[in-house]
Amino acid sequence: MIKFTERNLATPKQMRPVYLVAFGQSDYRKRYPEKKTEELCIEAFRMMALDNKLKVDGIQELKGYIHSCYYGHFADHFGDQLLGEALIHDRLGLDPMGNVGIKSGGATGGSTLWMAANAVASGYSDSVLCMGWERMDEVDTWTGNHYISTAADKDYETELGHIYTGYYALMAQRYWKTFGQSSPAFRRTMSKIAVKNHGYAVSNPYAQAPARITVEDVEKSPIVADPLRFYDACLMSVGAASVLLCDEETAYKLTDDPIRFYITAGSHTLRAADRRHMEIPLLPNEKDNDEIKKTYAGLYGDSNIERYPGFTGFLAARMAAYYAYNMTGIVDPCTDLDLVELHDAFTISDIQTYEDIGLRPYGQGPDYVESGDAYLIDPATGKRGRLPSNLSGGLIGCMHSVGATGIMQVGEIFWQLQNRWAEFHEPEHRWTRWGKEKPADFENLQVPDAKRGLAISHAGVGSHVTCSVLMRPESVIKK
Amino acid sequence: MSKHEFSFNNMNPGATVLQRLDPMVIEKPRNPIHVHTYGGETPFFRGLTEGKLMATKCMNAKCDPAGQEGDYFLPPRVYCPDCLEKMEWVDITELARATAKVHTHITVEHPGAFNQVPMPCELISVEIEGVATVIMSQLTGGKGEIGMKIEPIFNTAKPSFTILDLAWKPRS
Ligand SMILES: [Zn+2]
Fold this sequence. Notes:
The structure holds two protein chains of two kinds. Chain A is of the alpha/beta class. Helix content of chain A is 37%, strand content 14%.
């Protein structure tokens, strides 16, 4: 563990601006025997290349721009294929360009974006492919759960039930008892998140689990590990997502509407067990705020009822946000941003993350949902929310095809900021393409006048977290 | 057999089975064996089989610890995470008997494949005075509660040589 110095906390730099130029994805399914992983990746690439109004004459001209490739794929044992990135790279016909596989558990998509963006920012490449995928359907669900549990410490944790949900639930239970006082109101907030994200998935033709459910449905669903129920948990998925990142000159050569892209990363111990008590690194909207310092003194100070970050917060998320806000000039995320895509692995970890990234102070996360801020339109009041979250459906409603997840989140925000969400979600052909029927209750989820967005990609019980920030070029805060 | 050779004789032959014709889907069974070492953490796992809870402590006078809570590490670490000097082993069995508490707890009802713990199982995280960390373990003979006083019990009779040789029970 690090004792912070100024060097540790230095604001990350991009040596030149990085832009998102195009995004494509497959649809996502629990089981996908109709297609090999390679086919799904090529479908994502083709959509990225052909559907984004790029100023190139087809796939081969676009390939002529790609200088290096970054592939995110979490679990070799799920796909039963080592060096899967070489196989995908070959099927994409991108040899002999340099490529690398990147893995960091649930944050693999985010980490892959981090490496790809750094390649552009450093000047190594002007244009890079960043693609992620996962295939989780070769084994049954319980073997899948065992495989995921090997992303805990195998000597000290995995043996204890072979079930990651349990390791998460230990944190959830502590948060729930400390800040939620096990109250029905807190349980209700968790349920509302599941209802919201499954509901947004209804209007997403790529999503795996669209559903109009109620708070009661969530609270009647089977308990997986108390207080987490079936509907509180994310999906296991098969699918692929792909983005193209470029420097400024190349970006404008390829598109009239590139989106500025920033990304940072934080980490914490693999075992929650090893998280020692420390001072809270404050975010820009928490500085010089006596009230917050007083609030935190009650929670984490000398008269503490809790360790920080202990089992109730994710230091990796706090660090990623700390770097990202200082890098981009964001002061108050609820004011400076127009939408977010968070890593809702579980409803409760979604709430914990609201606090880590400063949407609310520690201990007050549920208010982000209860205030209506987290909705496009608050179903309780009919009013527009300040900072809608997970309009894709997130990991609960859309997918958790692990290596693709962080890329999907960023891609969905990219289309939103281009004001092209409807183009990719509404037309009949976007649904029939995947053998689906467009639902009668389809809603237009384009955020009006969206200029800036943020995405969190998260691994383990908080071992790795990346924070992506997207801004329309004219809305960049720090020039 | 020389010191560095291991036996891997239990490999399933991996015969494939046709599951579906279109798209063609096949089943590929396998059952590999891993040979795994506890290396420098051996005193902890051997300690469990002898009824002892072994932790580590950094004895480097120049070490500037990053955490603010306690000197002992459990799970143990061979090297100090702050200064990377080798730590010393300390028997904290009595300390745990006197001061251990439940930090958080859950009940697991549906384990993953290959699980050896009888279900449902009470998972707990354990706070011990003077210990910087909060180890994950299992509770027997009761339902967990935050703050519950507990003491360690050890599977010395028929050890599994895994972390499952350690469990906790309510302390009277
Ligand atoms: Zn030390």
